[in-house]
Amino acid sequence: MYHPAFHSSHAHLGHQYSFADTATPPCSAELLVPIHTIFAFLGNAIFLVGFVVSIIYLLAERDLKRKKKLHTIFRSFPSLETLDRINYRCMAYGFPSLTAAIITGSIWAETAWGHPWNWDPKETWSLITWIVYAILIHNRFVIGWRGRKTAYLMILGFVSVIVTFLGVNLIIGGLHSYV
Question: pTM of the full predicted structure?
Answer without folding.
Answer: 0.76
